[in-house]
Amino acid sequence: MSAIAERSDRRMGPPGSDNWHAMLDGAEAVLREEGHAALTSRRIAERIGVKQRLVYYYFATMDDLIIDLFHRMSVRELERLRTAAGSSLPLREIWDVCINTTDARLISQFMALAGRIEALGKEVIHFIEESRAIQVAALAEAMQRTPHGKAPGTGPGAGLDPAAVAIIATSVALTLTRERQLGTQSGHEAVLSMFERFLASIEPA
Amino acid sequence: MSAIAERSDRRMGPPGSDNWHAMLDGAEAVLREEGHAALTSRRIAERIGVKQRLVYYYFATMDDLIIDLFHRMSVRELERLRTAAGSSLPLREIWDVCINTTDARLISQFMALAGRIEALGKEVIHFIEESRAIQVAALAEAMQRTPHGKAPGTGPGAGLDPAAVAIIATSVALTLTRERQLGTQSGHEAVLSMFERFLASIEPA
DNA sequence: GTCTATACACCGATAGAC
DNA sequence: GTCTATCGGTGTATAGAC
Q: Which of A32, B22, B25, B115 is deepest in the core (most CB within 10 A)?
């Protein structure tokens, strides 16, 4: 998945090595704290105490570094989601991951970057589809097991579509996290208690 | 609201003039097409056919330009929302604004910038709270008029909270728009038809 | 594997003439 | 109001020694 193989001439360091991870750790911290405008080879090198040139030994270009960073993060996040989905209270655990583990600042930075770096956009799409599949599967199973409510506002009992619920849940989780980090929480309790009620009805604790 | 008054010494051009608007137009286009890393005074000047120095005649710093740009955009967007809220089908019109008018690329760029520029963060919060108030008011009125459905999955008839619905609707609209622009639409029909059913139940056409 | 040194482009912002 | 000219800084990326 690394773009390293695509470049030919320059000698390069091994992905997965300690330095490689250290550089991605530094990049992640810079991205989180200062935004992607500050994500430069110099800043990363300075942060982890190596020379700038070394960054280009492990990553052919800064774009490649960014893509590898997102990929490492998305692998971890999918792992977290799969673990949550395999637990005894899958929906609650997944919701917990979405609302507490995710860093909205990082997501914002990657979203902004995805518009500029095409290969990153593809990674992002892949991540969205994978994570949604995990959530839809967990929701479908829980809904099948429990006689669940009706679609909101609907007269006759059209059931909820797991795909719709998955999109709503992840969208809302991201919004709440982002707004909280931004500094506003107006209306948050209302939607949180609504999700709490939904969880209680479909996955009793 | 412009930061111009806060700088003292340098002579500056009038906000609201033709050039001022032209520069913000150029900035908006750059932001949309190339992202905020490319949003520089030179790029803007080049785009609208003036010299770079002129940008600094109208805006004290690039940050001020960005804040003014967001502010101009948020005023327009709030105006659109208020018009929609005053129409004969307010909920449908508001939903239409959220899902069709909004450019998710621009939002992503501003979100990423809001973490870095403190004054922009405040503008963003202000916009979020204003637009949410408009939506909540429209929802509350429509819900009061129509006997609406129950909270999803709930046994006893706890009503939907307008604030919760507003957050859900805007979150989902932004997600759908962003994913569509990114290049994926998996699950979108499910959630769109769910909103369509909700709208039909609460605001018959 | 890691380093020094550096080419070259572009950035924000300013001084001061017209 | 708009221009020319420019400073000082920082960015990506490379060449080639050790």
A: B115
Mention every residue, 6+ apart, whose C-beta is less than 8 A from residue A113.
A36, A66, A120, B35
Find all residues with CB under 8 Å of B69, minimum gap 6, and list them. Answer: B24, B27, B28, B31
Domain co-membership, B158 together with B107: yes
Q: What is the spatial distance between Cα A70 and Cα A28, in angstroms, rounded to a whole number? A: 9
CATH number of domain containing A9? 1.10.10.60
What is the per-residue pLDDT for A147?
63
* Amino acid in the structure at residue A65: L
Say which residue the tokens 């829980």 belong to.
A142
Residues of A with Cβ-Cβ distance to B112 under 8 angstroms: 35-36, 108-109, 111-112
pLDDT tens, position by position, B104-142: 999 999 999 999 999 999 999 999 999 999 999 999 999
| Entry pTM | 0.91
Among the partner-chain residues A36, A151, A183, the one whose CB lies closest to the CB of B121 is A183
